[in-house]
Amino acid sequence: MTINEKIQTMLKIYTRIVTGIFSFLFFYLHFIMNDAMVGVSDIAGIHLCGIISAVAYLPLITDKEYSKTKMIVINVVHFLIVNITVLSIGYFLKWFTFKNYKTVAGLESMIMLIYAIMVFIEYKIDNCQAVKMNKKIQERNSRSNTGV
User: CB pairs under 8 A, 24+ apart, for 40-46?
Assistant: First the structure.
């Protein structure tokens, strides 16, 4: 991968993780914690989660294409990195305590949901691009077979 491709990948991961966390935070604060406030340290912590998750993904990717098995392994390893990052930053910023298992379970559920949504979006985008590329190849092949 070129440096530009790596930067684009990092930005995609950062954007998706941070957007997912902020989206979840909005719904959580709006529907569950009506009077809760978000501080600057919380916002910085969310951005730090995105940065660390994006940078941690780079060593995992070396090629442009992977087998399904390798992609599953990469996603599991990256999920563990994201999970540890969010739990560590969350604990440090007092988003939860390990004494209250309900908040830990809620945060863990949020991490899993956001990561699953992120992987699903990435899959759909990649699949859409593959369909477009295959269609262009078929069109080019049909034109070359007809002599156009």
Answer: 41/93, 42/93, 42/95, 45/89, 45/90, 45/92, 45/93, 45/95, 46/18, 46/21, 46/22
